[in-house]
Structures are given as structure tokens and as C-alpha cells.
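Journal club prep, notes for RB
We'll compare a predicted complex against what the paper describes. Inputs for the adenosine-5'-diphosphate case:
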Amino acid sequence: EQLANQIAAGEVVERPSSVVKELVENAVDAGGSTIDITIEEGGLTLIRVVDNGSGIEDDDMKLAFFRHATSKLKSSKDLFRIASLGFRGEALPSIAAVAKVECISSTETSGLGKRLAIEGGTITAYEEANTPQGTDITVRDLFYNTPARLKYMKSIQTEIGHIADYVNRLALAHPGIAFTLKHNGSLLLRTLGSGERLQTFAAVYGSSAAKAMLPVEGEHPDYDLRGYVSKPELTRANRNGITVIVNGRYIRSFIVNQAILQAFHTLLPINRFPLAVLELGMHPSLLDVNVHPSKMEVRFSKEPELRQFIEESIGKVLGRQRH
Ligand code: ADP
Ligand code: MG
């Protein structure tokens, strides 16, 4: 069991940003309005995620740290219409197998809850705790018991770079949640959670970038598209400024990126890329998100139609710019 968890950990927990991703996605799923993330030393010594969401029921807390304890998948059919971000129940056991984890959670507004501590997969404490409604998870000394993995970590700057990139995109995907991200005591991101995507965009990229964005809106029998792309004057040297959200989930999609870039074709000099934050909605049966455990990759069932729809929707706003 412990070995199985360490093997699964290799898939789910590649580096500190994978831990942040899993914890923050759980926090989003929990439905609260604030998520505060504290990181020390690129996440290798400390990752803490505090949310004010539903909290974890007393009976479920220990269970959550064992394999396949997901509360989010009711039947195998659900795999094809996933509304919540997590659905595999592998994240917490995997993290607990390769770090020292403390989880404090309460489902009660009264603040009566539980504190669970786990080291390398073994429970070291389980007791009553007074804590506000929500969940507070701290992960210390990541990979302390898997030195081979620890050796693969890059510099602290590289690791916090991955974390910040991920949190920025998740904040863009959830403008209604107020996020903070702190690293070694300094504040890297604060979003207001107003629900206004352009305001979140300004928190991530700055207010002058936000002013140079054009609203995109597209409708199609199978899809809808909302968001912003930059005016062709505002370009970047790489495509990291493109954020794609599908049914509320931040994803990576070569197909969608290609469609966006195609819309900018002839407008941008070679090797220049737009900024974009686009939210695509579609019936869940039209996509398969179970491609990789990290759940960032998806497959679409009608790629050519989707591509054309995105390209045309963006093309319309850019076309208006030209006249
Ligand atoms: P999954 O997200 O795939 O269900 P995880 O291993 O990430 O699996 O989490 C296991 C379970 O623990 C979740 O299904 C959920 O019930 C509970 N859980 C984890 N984090 C939180 C949180 N921040 N708030 C409320 N419940 C949580
Ligand atoms: Mg999860």
C-alpha cells in the first residue's frame, strides 16, 4: 500500500508545483471564496493552502489520505462528464507518501474540527482542533524520503516560477475567488475575487496590459467562447501569456493554441505571441479530460469544428481593429 502510494506519487507529484496544483484544485472544488497559498523555498520546505470552503467531514479525513477516496466520482460514467476539478482520489495519498502533511479542517461554522498529521504515509496525530470552517493543509519537506526525486529539483527560482505560473492561471480561471500567493514572505499575487475577469487579469499582468485587451465573444450550437485577447500591438516573445479554460478548468491544448495563433496570423511578426485568456464552454460529452493524471491535457471530439469556431470568433474582434 505504501509502495503503491509512492509509485502513484511519482505520477502525481512530480515537483512542488504539482502539490500546489492538487491542493489548490481541491480548495477550488470545496467551493469557498478565498484561497491563501504560502510557499517557502520554492515549495521544498513548505507549501500551505488555506481555504474557507466546505471543509472535510470528520469521518472522511483519514479516508481522504488513502488511495481512491475521491468523493467526487459517483460512477464510471461520471468520468465523461466531470464538473469538479479532481476526480481520481490519488492526490492526497500520493502527497502524504512523500512529505510531512498536516491537515486541519472543519465543516462547522462553530469551528469544531479535526487535525490530522501524516509523515511518509503514517498517521502521527489525529485530534480535535478549533479552526474556522474550511481546510488548512500544510506540506513540509517534500521528497524528504525519496532523495532520488529531490535531486531532480531545479533552483528555488525555477520551482516558484512554475508555482506562480500555475496559480496565476488558476486565478484567471476563477475570477470569483480571492487568491493570495506568498513566497518567502513576499506577496506574489493578490486577486480580489470580484468575479470580474479583467480585474484578475490586471492583478496578474498589470493594469496597462489589461487596458490593451479586446473582449471576445462567440456562440456556436456546440460551444461558447468568452474572454479577452490582446491588441496586436501588445505581444510577447513566448506563448505563456495564453490561458485557456474549458468548462471552468485551466487546461493545456495544442489545438486551441493553434486556433488562437491562426487568428493572429499575418497580424503578428514572426515569433511574437498574443496575450489571451479564453473560457470555452461545451457539453462535457464533447471532451475527455482523463488523458493524464495531472488532468491538464484534454481531447476534444470535434476538433476541426472547434478550431474553426475559435479562429473565427477571435478573427471577428481583430478584424474590427483593422478598420
Ligand atoms: P480528488 O480531488 O480526486 O477527489 P484528492 O486526493 O485530491 O482526490 O482528495 C480526496 C478527497 O478529500 C476529496 O474528494 C475531498 O472529498 C477531500 N478534500 C481534499 N481537499 C479538500 C478541501 N480543501 N476541502 C474539502 N474537501 C477536501
Ligand atoms: Mg483533488
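Talking point for the session: The radius of gyration is 20 Å.
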